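# step 3/5: fold
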Amino acid sequence: MEEKIQKAKPIIEEFFQKMGLEFDLSISLINNETISVDLKLKDDEWLQKKEEMISASQLILRNLLRRKLGERIYLDLDINDYKKRKIKYLKELAKKVADEVALTKKEKILDPMPAYERRIVHLELAQRPDVTTESIGKEPNRRVVIKPYP
């Protein structure tokens, strides 16, 4: 699997160099299948719309790697630790709202969020015996509902 990283690294570097970005790059393999790319930009002005830019870059880069390497590639791109901070925020939000729901015995509906963010909330609260979660609505307006456990 180290071979996969060695093949992918120059492609990833070239992708961001062609965008005219100055960066430091760290690549690792998660669970022997997902290439984790941690990009540190010298100037994050490029990231005005962080989530959209990271998502779009990840999609383009994953497709580029699949085409150039000729194999199925799973890619997780994080730029300037945006995803790490977002995950931490979502876990804290989930705990805070769950505590409130457990105390008041009234359900709370979170703002709409993408599937991967809803999954973080569901997983964070899965082991709590005092609350339960479910997703409601249709994309792109699906939300997580946190309810007191019956």
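# step 4/5: annotate
The helical segments are 2-17, 50-69, 82-104, 115-125.
# step 5/5: archive (pending)
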